[in-house]
Write a structure and sequence with these properties.
- The chain contains five helices and 19 strands.
- The chain is mainly beta.
- The chain is globular and about 60 Å long.
Length: 287
């Protein structure tokens, strides 16, 4: 069992390669793709690069899909009209289409522990569920991939420039590299937040007194973390003896291990430090 999320994707090849955001497929045990005609297919993770928020999945058993035409984000002009397409707010049925202009280029953004660079800013409405969907120019070419990790912004949507995504796509299709997640990657099964970035309200809600570490905001049911006794509200301070300063350290520590490895996870729970022993799962199994 894993939690479910909704997002959008961009068809890259006739045989079912699809581009989406890494945060859309993070922690999912199974991926179901609903085509624009309503047909549902299972898909598997080819690879994801959390630092770039880019992932590629493969739809099982399809052929003759119509790939999107990838354009050049470099050629985009500020003020040019663009359209965002996606499964906004997971409303179902036909995708939502919103239009706007390119408000700015080359924006850098830090959100949810990810530093994204060179983003396209648009006033086309981008909402959760739009993530992974295309930003399209007037010629119908994909110039960006919408990412809705900035909630609460008004008339500010952000897209990963397609020129930035292209080399990541190529790398994932050929097996990825350091910092990328493949189906065999070790899986802990937590969502974490940087303690240093927490609001006073979050600190109070979870009873956090420390200044650093990674706060566990979600534990995937049945995952390695769940079986090992990690709880929501724990602050991870060490994994396998290495200090954890923020959420990135958790991800790096897990990705440097293999599925099946036994690691110690030291957590601050209230005023107590507790050391748990966790046997890492395999991401492809969703556990």
């Amino acid at each position: 069992g894993a939690f479910s999320g909704a997002g959008s994707g961009i068809v890259l090849s006739e045989d079912g390669l699809v581009l989406t955001n890494a945060h859309v497929v993070s922690g999912l045990g199974g991926i179901t793709v609903v085509m624009s005609d309503g047909a549902r297919h299972q898909a598997t993770l080819v690879g994801s690069s959390p630092n770039d928020d880019v992932a590629v999945v493969k739809i099982d058993g399809v052929s003759a899909l119509v790939p999107a035409e990838l354009g050049s984000s470099e050629d985009l002009q500020v003020g040019e009209e663009v359209i965002a397409i996606g499964n906004a707010l997971n409303l179902g049925g036909q995708p939502t289409v919103t239009r706007g202009i390119v408000s700015a280029k080359d924006r850098d953004l830090s959100a949810q522990g990810v530093e994204l660079r060179g983003l396209i800013q648009t006033d086309a409405a981008i909402n959760p569920g739009n993530s992974g969907g295309p930003l399209v120019n007037a010629a119908g070419q994909v110039v960006g991939m919408n990412t809705a990790i900035v909630a609460d912004a008004q008339n500010l949507g952000f897209s990963i420039a397609i020129d930035t995504a292209k080399p990541v796509i190529a790398s994932l299709e050929s097996g990825g590299g350091p910092g990328t997640v493949t189906p065999d990657a070790a899986f802990l099964g937590v969502s974490t937040l940087d303690v240093a970035q927490l609001t006073d309200q979050q600190r109070a809600q979870f009873g956090v007194t420390r200044g650093d570490g990674a706060l566990v905001s979600e534990v995937v049911p049945g995952s390695a973390a769940d079986r090992g006794g990690v709880e929501v509200g724990d602050v991870i301070v060490k994994i396998a003896g290495s200090p954890v300063g923020d959420a990135d350290d958790v991800r790096d520590a897990v990705l440097s291990r293999d599925a099946g490895d036994e690691v110690t996870v030291e957590v601050a729970r209230g005023d107590d430090l507790t050391t748990l022993t966790v046997t890492l799962g395999r991401r492809g199994d969703g556990a």
